[in-house]
């Protein structure tokens, strides 16, 4: 294996650096504590959602309901958790458990995750509408304080991203159970042969995804201070893109938590960068697509180098 | 083979059940109108579903997420070119289909040349198509020419015209899948791409033609939908993303590819419309409707999978 193929993390790091340099070149004033805070403001929930999606992709599945799930969590956080914290926490816990249960059901009945999560996206969306029929609600004060805290040296969004990446890295790459979980994506049968209960592992992976999804929804409410049932629908696609951008693969349990967080940061920055370009608003979305294609094209270099070796 | 083992049966049974439940509530009133509406709206879902089915048949990881953007772009450009002038329907159709063809080629180029996973490639490209539609449309709502609007909302031999189009397309797809070499190639590619390639199947040609077909189908659906509903809107395709995947799966095609099911797509398309009408007529709110729709989708998939496992 060549150097580049072994160190897949280089690609997301380079993309983020290039994009950051371009942003600073366009708008030198962004090169400050305040500027960075603005640039990466919404990165924290996206990074958390991307890690959630990564947990699912790690076991060879894909979650099409994540955006609806994060929206539901946001609605719960902005209403029930704010009014009656104990009940709110209970509901959020139940949501995490239902994700774990989903993983177990998907494995036990051998039904495709893409379809089940597609159906679940309707369920989450419907529940969110139940809880919050029209946009509104309020963020719990402690959450608001947590999300707007101003740590020394680096803005909240950057510090939080580093912490998320670190925690996910320790959990998935360094710990024993993380290695087994990635093994489920690599070869579920050999993991089963080695004596591991795959169904529980899948439930664990899905439960972790639920946990990070809940954190994403809460972080989002802390930033926006209110919620609506459609607030995070785009996170489904953003999170998938973030995982792949970070060097993950759809199959084989090949994922990188650090890469995923950097991928999420890159996607967030791409939006900020494009607004600096003074691009007509018609092309904003399209330019995001173009940036995505451009960055992913760089994967070719890695892939081919790996294949030659 | 027993009729009960046909996977497409379940979506049709479910559609019939939903239909009966609504009529039970209204004690038989409005049966004709309901069937007519289901056939009209179901046709759009069936057309995009047939395209999505072909792509999903290609095997794991193949899915087209650019369907909504393609529908919007094709409809926007076609209506803009027609500019409500009479006698331009064919021109508009040509433009819509050309847009579909172009989108399909672009999608496949990203997948093949840049080796992007189809999910990501079609997702990223769809953002660009969406921008193109926004840029060309400028928020204007151009009405379709009168003749075309009449055709899209009209009927022939008691069935809506759009249903005829959808049925015709279903028959063409069925013949292509079951009776043509291309169909055999497609199924072989979906079952095992490596083996298919070694057996001499022009795998890349099959994939290219499939991705072009799905976009052309989506463009056609967009063109018809815009004519049907009196103009193109930027969000007109939004609901067809999940819908297209749902009808394929409920219809009994294997999401793992290599096995497709044309009648099931139509059954599922009718079912998806009827289940929403059913929940509406039972007075369910938007929230409850979504929850139940999701639960029913999952229920059908579980029922179909245990059924398959037993046979």
Calculate Rg of chain B over CA atoms: 19 Å
Structural classification of chain B:
mainly alpha
Query: What strand line-up does the widest sheet of chain B have?
Result: 1-2
How is the biggest beta sheet of chain B arranged?
A: 2 strands, antiparallel
Number of strands of chain A: 0
Shape of chain A: globular
The number of helical segments of chain A is 15
- Domain count of chain A, please report it: 1
Q: Calculate the mean pLDDT score of chain B and round it.
A: 84
Return residue spans of chain B where pLDDT drops below 50 for at least 5 consecutive residues: none
- H/E topology pattern of chain A: HHHHHHHHHHHHHHH
Estimate the helix proportion of chain B, in percent: over 70%
Count, helices of chain B: 13
What is the rounded distance between the termini of chain A? 5 Å
Helix content of chain A: over 70%
Subcellular location (chain B): Cell membrane
Transmembrane segments (chain B): 7-27, 34-59, 89-110, 116-135, 156-177, 208-228, 240-258, 291-309
GO cellular component, one term (chain B): plasma membrane
Pfam families (chain B): BPD_transp_2 (PF02653)
């Amino acid at each position: 294996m060549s150097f580049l193929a072994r160190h897949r993390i280089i690609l997301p790091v380079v993309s983020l650096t290039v994009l950051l340099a371009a942003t600073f070149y366009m708008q030198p004033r962004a090169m400050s504590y305040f500027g960075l805070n603005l640039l990466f403001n919404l990165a924290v929930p996206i990074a958390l959602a991307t890690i959630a999606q990564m947990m699912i992709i790690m076991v060879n599945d894909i979650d099409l309901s994540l955006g609806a799930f994060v929206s539901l969590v946001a609605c719960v956080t902005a209403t029930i958790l704010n009014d009656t914290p104990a009940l709110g926490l209970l509901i959020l816990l139940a949501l995490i458990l239902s994700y774990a249960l989903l993983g177990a059901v998907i494995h036990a009945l051998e039904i495709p995750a893409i379809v089940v999560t597609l159906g679940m996206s309707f369920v989450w969306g419907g529940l969110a509408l139940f809880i919050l029929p029209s946009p509104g609600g309020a963020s719990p004060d402690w959450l608001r304080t947590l999300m707007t805290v101003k740590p020394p040296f680096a803005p909240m969004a950057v510090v939080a991203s580093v912490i998320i990446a670190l925690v996910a890295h320790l959990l998935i790459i360094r710990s024993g159970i993380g290695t087994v979980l990635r093994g489920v994506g690599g070869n579920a049968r050999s993991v089963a042969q080695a004596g591991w209960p795959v169904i529980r592992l899948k439930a664990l992976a899905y439960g972790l995804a639920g946990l990070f999804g809940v954190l994403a929804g809460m972080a989002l409410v802390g930033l926006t201070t209110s919620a609506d049932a459609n607030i995070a629908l785009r996170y489904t696609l953003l999170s998938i893109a973030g995982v792949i951008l970070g060097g993950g693969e759809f199959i084989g349990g090949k994922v990188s938590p650090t890469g995923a967080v950097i991928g999420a940061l890159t996607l967030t920055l791409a939006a900020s960068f494009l607004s600096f370009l003074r691009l007509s608003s018609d092309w904003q979305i399209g330019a995001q697509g173009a940036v995505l294609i451009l960055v992913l094209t760089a994967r070719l270099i890695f892939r081919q180098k790996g294949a030659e070796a | 083979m027993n009729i009960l083992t046909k996977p497409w049966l379940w979506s049709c049974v479910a559609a019939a059940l939903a239909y009966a439940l609504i009529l039970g509530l209204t004690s038989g009133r409005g049966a004709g109108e309901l069937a007519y509406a289901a056939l009209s709206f179901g046709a759009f879902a069936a057309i995009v579903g047939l395209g999505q089915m072909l792509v999903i048949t290609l095997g794991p990881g193949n899915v087209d997420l650019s369907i909504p953007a393609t529908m919007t772009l094709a409809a926007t450009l076609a209506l803009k070119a027609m500019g409500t002038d009479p006698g331009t329907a064919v021109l508009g159709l040509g433009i819509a289909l050309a847009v579909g063809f172009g989108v399909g080629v672009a999608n496949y180029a990203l997948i093949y040349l840049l080796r992007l996973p189809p999910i990501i490639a079609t997702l990223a490209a769809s953002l660009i198509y969406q921008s193109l539609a926004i840029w060309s449309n400028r928020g204007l709502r151009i009405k379709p020419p009168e003749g075309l609007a009449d055709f899209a909302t009209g009927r022939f031999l008691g069935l809506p015209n759009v249903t005829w189009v959808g049925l015709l397309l279903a028959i063409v797809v069925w013949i292509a899948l079951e009776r043509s070499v291309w169909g055999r190639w497609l199924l072989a590619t979906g079952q095992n791409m490596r083996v298919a390639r070694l057996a001499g199947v022009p795998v890349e040609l099959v994939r290219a033609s499939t991705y072009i077909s799905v976009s052309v189908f989506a463009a056609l659906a967009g063109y018809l939908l815009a004519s049907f509903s009196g103009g193109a809107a930027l969000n007109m395709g939004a609901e067809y993303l999940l819908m297209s995947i749902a009808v394929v799966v409920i219809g009994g095609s294997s999401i793992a590819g290599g096995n497709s099911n044309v009648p099931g797509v139509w059954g599922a398309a009718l079912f998806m419309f009827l289940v929403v009408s059913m929940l509406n007529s039972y007075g369910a709110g938007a929230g409850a409707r979504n929850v139940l729709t999701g639960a029913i989708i999952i229920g059908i998939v579980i029922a179909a999978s245990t059924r398959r496992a037993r046979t």
